[in-house]
Please model this.
Amino acid sequence: MYKNKTICVVVPAHNEEKLIGRVIETMPGFVDKIVIVDDKSSDRTVEKVNSYLNKLREKLVLIQHKDNQGVGGAIVTGYKWALDSEMDITAVMAGDAQMDPDDLPTLIDAVIEDKIDYAKGNRLFTGQAWQKIPRVRYLGNSCLSLLTKIASGYWHVADSQTGYTAITIEVLKYIDLDAIYKRYGMPNDLLVHINIGHYRVKDIPINPVYNIGEKSGIRLWKVIPTMSRLLLKRFFWRLLQKYVIRDFHPLIFFYLLGLILFPVGLSFGAYLIYYRIVCGPVAATSALFASFLFISGLQSLFFAMWFDMEYNKDLK
Model:
């Protein structure tokens, strides 16, 4: 128990035989249940976890997937166990020991004391992030975080990719866990679902941990296009659910206008530039019309984003 709340920590693990023992051994003592979800590892991860079961029989739980479902699928399995077991707060820590256990009380305190529904670690608050996080991953994370702000409506969340989180049982009851994306984009997709429920989310500074023997299987050149498509679909789904079906807000019209005028103006302007270079002069009215479409579309998008920020400003 921690401040009269039962605490569960879900640990998704896939081929983590080198570091899963460190995760278990350094877990804070106040944690009631450690749920290791093995996502069909091909190494000795399960054997390593089993070696701790006798010692931690009352605290440690091992769930094994028959098929590889991805990190998101492993987290969802852990969430379902915590929900069925009526755990008050459920945190997520990776199986590769990249999440500092000393940061866990801060995440949970945000949920308990600040009445936050979903506390999310942010590795970018610290000035050490640029030095500790590999450059490619840092830049890729920044790009995906920007897209997630737009898609999810949580404009204050700066590190969307970190999986170090704490969530309340009330939110888990609300979310359709089977509808959550099961792969790398799970934290981003979860934010969209939580926003539709109008729950509060807070960024919590955490210490970035790297170069301890972890091995990342993430390939950004594959992840970013896939994630971009996911976030685009979730963006339109959130607008429909939140601003049309469950409520109504005029930002829908601004988004629609911007998404029509901006690409048309941009394309028409690019065509005029090509025509001017290859064929010769263009009519001044054509150039003005392209500029009008481009600027009007851009302004509409900015107004829509501003309305969205204002609507969600109390969710932090």
